[in-house]
Write a sequence for this structure.
């Protein structure tokens, strides 16, 4: 009897990991009332689902915007001040920066509205309403259709539904699949186009800790930047114009001065990009035991080479700063993800769950359900080698900068060979490439690229069998006798893609036959051989296998919902507005170690090191620390809190999302996850999955006390319950 109940408990734990507990779940705003309101209120929330999302009255959702194409932002003043992360505003802050006005390094503060800086091309997108359009989208779809037919019917239905809506509306409409294609929702949105930069802290605050601290808790980064939405005189979105006026939102977030305590209820409202919580064990194995380790090795090789040269020469460090950050960000994420799945025994847990599922399916009498697991196994068996080959192509072949750069000349070659194309079209492409050349050579350092090429080609060659490798490896074997360095030297000696002068002169004097010079270039040839291999051998198979997998995933999730009718399932993230909720909480990353839930300015001073770029502290911040001039931003404990950790289930795209307390007041801005919990994109573990936020009082402190831009606080609403 006793043994039995233990087994039951174990099974329950395994099950619940795969369904919902704690902070897990990215929920649909329009379904909150029926799915989550009760639980949220039990956890401490004092407002209602209707306060969060409503189409009848103003609600919290009226203050959340997709920032650009990859981040979240929120409105925090009656005059349309928009708050997001520093790393989300980074590109735009960089665009305004010159040697004389280096806003990235020194920060930027508009001291009046006239000084705010426009950012052509930057948009902020507001969700007006979401609607369930599943029935319209699945009209004329029948379960026995081929995946291809199904997709084309769905595509046509989506077009009909969105066209119909847009005809009679000033808003935009788009439709996305949810629950692996078991449901379709329409998003009705308004896109703002005049978004101006208002303020950004210096990088040694906004990026404090840099890539060293990235994905890590305890964290001390002031990762925020401030923008403002402008609209035309009628209050509608418009391109930049001097006559535009600040946007008057339907709702903006009150900002709480009370801080958070361990155990407090919080929720995050924003735009998570992508999760895969319902994959079978075969997929988890492919991602975490094959794909991630390969990519990690390749990226590590590249990062080591970047580091070697950057340490020797500060100019090289600046040139490679953005590239390094980009490569390092997901390198580190993948290490965390694979490690996390291993720590959770994630593959075994999924396998056990699948055994249970198969047992249930065999009793269900549904043959389709009963056949799912063997079918998944077969498809992932076929997909894995192709995926591996594609990873090497992207992360090794295309990681050679001149090869990737050369591939961008393919369009010019095509246009030049096509007799129907006009000189105008060709000239337009040439102008585009000229601009691109300037950007490329500004941040290019040949010794790094040469060493990357030699090292990565060796790994690429040793990791795959012949059929999965591009033709240039034959040359390396036969003509260069496996001497990767000699082959690299040959490519660099002959190619023009590392020689700015030769490339400009080609474009400046471009003639109808000049494309032949590009076609003969060895870096271009490498790029084309990879393209050919991809097109001929991988692309078709990959698409058809992925289509079959998508179709199985749809059926698998539907079956699980039948198996567990009482569970609340949540759809994977797909870059639509979601709510996730949890508690402020520390965690134990390993045996005997416990991390508290908040960090303070004291921690910044502990990390300070004037000799390490990531840990430089400015005199001004040190002075404020020494005089303890924290004003109303100090915590009850007298210190200045900088960041906090909580168990909200977030992912990429949630950067910049508002973190809200039980009253729906702003207490933080989300910007990262802790390393031990990065497997939450595949499976969530409430014990270690934590989102990392800047404490909103640190943001206010930097604006007011550090930057002296306290006038901005006049348009905000600061609240305190004490
Ligand atoms: N890890 C965070 C995210 O995925 C922050 C990235 C930017 N910061 C950095 N140090 N590279 O986007
Ligand atoms: N920094 C991420 C972003 O840019 C958020 C971190 C995460 O992946 O959770 O969206």
């Amino acid at each position: 009897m006793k043994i039995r109940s233990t087994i039951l408990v174990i099974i329950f734990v395994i099950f619940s990991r795969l369904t919902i507990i704690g902070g897990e779940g990215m929920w649909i705003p329009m379904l909150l009332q029926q799915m989550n309101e009760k639980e949220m209120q039990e956890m401490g929330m004092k407002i209602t689902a209707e306060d969060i999302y409503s189409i009848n009255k103003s609600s919290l959702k009226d203050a959340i915007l997709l920032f650009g194409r990859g981040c979240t932002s929120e409105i925090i003043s009656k005059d349309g001040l928009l708050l997001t992360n520093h790393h989300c505003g980074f590109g735009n802050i960089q665009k305004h920066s010159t040697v004389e006005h280096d806003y990235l390094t020194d920060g930027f503060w508009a001291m009046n509205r006239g000084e705010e800086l426009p950012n052509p091309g930057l948009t902020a997108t507001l969700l007006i309403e979401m609607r369930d359009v599943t029935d319209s989208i699945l009209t004329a779809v029948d379960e026995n259709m081929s995946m291809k037919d199904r997709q084309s019917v769905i595509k046509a239905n989506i077009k009909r539904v969105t066209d119909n809506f847009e005809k009679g509306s000033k808003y935009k409409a788009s439709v996305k699949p949810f629950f692996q294609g078991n449901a379709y929702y329409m998003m009705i949105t308004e896109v703002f186009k005049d978004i101006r930069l208002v303020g950004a802290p210096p990088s040694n605050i906004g990026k404090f800790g840099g890539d060293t601290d990235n994905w890590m808790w305890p964290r001390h980064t002031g990762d925020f930047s401030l923008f403002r939405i402008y609209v035309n005189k009628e209050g509608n979105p418009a391109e930049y114009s001097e006559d535009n006026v600040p946007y008057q939102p339907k709702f903006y977030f009150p900002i709480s001065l009370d801080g958070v305590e361990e155990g407090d209820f919080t929720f995050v409202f924003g735009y998570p990009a992508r999760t895969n919580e319902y994959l079978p064990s075969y997929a988890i194995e492919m991602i975490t035991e094959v794909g991630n380790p390969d990519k990690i090795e390749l990226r590590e090789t590249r990062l080591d080479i970047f580091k070697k040269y950057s340490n020797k020469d500060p100019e090289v460090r600046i040139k490679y700063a953005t590239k390094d950050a980009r490569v390092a960000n997901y390198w580190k994420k993948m290490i965390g993800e694979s490690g996390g799945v291993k720590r959770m025994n994630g593959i075994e847990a999924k396998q056990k769950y699948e055994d249970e599922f198969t047992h249930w399916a065999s009793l269900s009498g549904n043959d389709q359900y009963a056949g799912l697991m063997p079918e998944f196994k077969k498809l992932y068996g076929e997909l894995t080698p192709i995926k591996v080959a594609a990873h090497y192509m992207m992360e090794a072949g295309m990681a050679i900068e001149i090869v990737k750069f050369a591939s961008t000349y393919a369009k010019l070659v095509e246009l030049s060979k096509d007799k129907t194309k006009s000189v105008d079209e060709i000239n337009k492409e040439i102008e585009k490439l000229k601009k691109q050349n300037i950007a490329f050579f500004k941040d290019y350092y040949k010794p790094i690229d040469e060493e990357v090429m030699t090292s990565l080609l060796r790994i690429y060659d040793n990791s795959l069998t012949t059929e999965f490798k591009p033709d240039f490896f034959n040359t390396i074997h036969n003509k260069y006798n496996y001497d990767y360095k000699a082959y690299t030297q040959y490519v660099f000696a002959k190619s023009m893609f590392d020689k700015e002068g030769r490339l400009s002169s080609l474009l400046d004097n471009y003639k109808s036959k000049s494309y032949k010079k590009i076609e003969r270039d060895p870096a271009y040839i490498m790029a084309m051989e990879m393209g050919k291999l991809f097109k001929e051998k991988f692309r078709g198979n990959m698409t058809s296998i992925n289509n079959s997998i998508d179709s199985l995933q749809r059926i698998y999730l539907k079956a699980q919902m039948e198996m567990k009718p009482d569970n609340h399932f949540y759809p994977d993230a797909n870059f639509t507005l979601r709510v996730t909720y949890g508690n402020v909480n520390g965690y134990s990353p390993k045996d005997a170690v416990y991390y508290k839930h908040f960090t303070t300015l004291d921690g910044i001073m502990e990390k300070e090191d004037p000799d390490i770029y990531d840990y430089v502290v400015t005199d001004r911040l040190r002075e404020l620390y020494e005089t303890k001039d924290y004003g109303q931003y100090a915590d009850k404990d007298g210190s200045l809190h900088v960041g906090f950790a909580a168990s909200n289930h977030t992912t990429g795209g949630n950067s910049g999302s508002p973190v809200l307390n039980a009253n729906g007041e702003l207490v933080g801005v989300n910007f990262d996850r802790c390393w031990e919990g990065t497997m939450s994109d595949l499976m969530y573990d409430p014990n270690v999955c934590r989102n990392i936020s800047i404490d909103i009082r640190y943001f206010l402190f930097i604006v007011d006390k550090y930057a002296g831009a306290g006038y901005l606080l006049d348009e905000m609403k600061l609240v305190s319950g004490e």
Remarks:
- Confidence is low (pLDDT under 50) at residues 1-21.
